Amino acid sequence: MISIKNEKEVLIIDKLINDIVKGHYKENDKLPSENELTNKYKVPRITIRKVYERLEEMGYIYSKQGKGRYLKDKKQKIDLVLSGNESFSKKMKDKGYNFYSQNMFCEEIEYNKKIYNELEISKNDKVYKIGRLRFIDEKPIALHISYVAKSLFQDIDENGKNIRSMFEYYRSKGYTEFDSEESVLRVAFPTYYEREIFKSSCLIPMLIVECNCIDKKTGRKLEYTKIIYRSDVFKYKI
């Protein structure tokens, strides 16, 4: 059961979010002080402090030490077109961002019916997952996990740990044009592992995209992909 104190906290959060959505505050505007809201809503100051902490964790506002809280600039969000015919690295570099990728892992997975079916391979094949964490301005923003079959890429177990762009790797193997079938999108709150690697709070949802990458010339399935995006960093174009 929600206590009165927590209920008031939720109601104040809802009121402030409603004011933000209605445009009562412009980007980088200073929000009311803790004292102002304490007097307005007749609640202890600690309640208002928690309200602001939650709004900051949710990505609505930011703090300046000793100066107060401010509304985040939505224009700072990155436009992202969700398509599988061009690499994420190229999209970010073409936009002029200070971008780089870090290879996180390359490891064989246990048999997974869904992934094996997506790759159109037999149960006797081996599949490796390669993870790349994406950064802009030193901030982790996305995790790309690619599942590839060893029968198609014989050296993946040895070279996978050095891959930072799968498209560059595919081009080195003679694949130059890419396509994808339908994508599945869902939103989920981050796991402990995701909160750790993204340095994010549990209140910032993740957008998860699952799709495949196909060689356009032959129709061959090159990979099955799972991408985890921080929802507070991007504006998505589908």
From TrEMBL:
- Keywords noted in UniProt: DNA-binding, Transcription, Transcription regulation
Task: Please verify whether the record's keywords include Transferase.
Answer: no
Question: Can you give the residue ranges of the HTH gntR-type domain?
Answer: 6-74
Q: Which PROSITE patterns match?
A: HTH_GNTR (PS50949)
Identify the SMART domains for this entry.
Answer: HTH_GNTR, UTRA
Give an example GO biological process: negative regulation of DNA-templated transcription
Q: Which domain of life is it from?
A: Bacteria
Which molecular function terms from Gene Ontology are attached?
DNA binding; DNA-binding transcription factor activity
CDD domains of this UniProt entry? Answer: WHTH_GntR
A Pfam family the protein falls into = UTRA
Protein name from the UniProt record: Transcriptional regulator, GntR family
Taxonomy, top ranks, is:
Bacteria, Bacillati, Bacillota, Clostridia, Peptostreptococcales
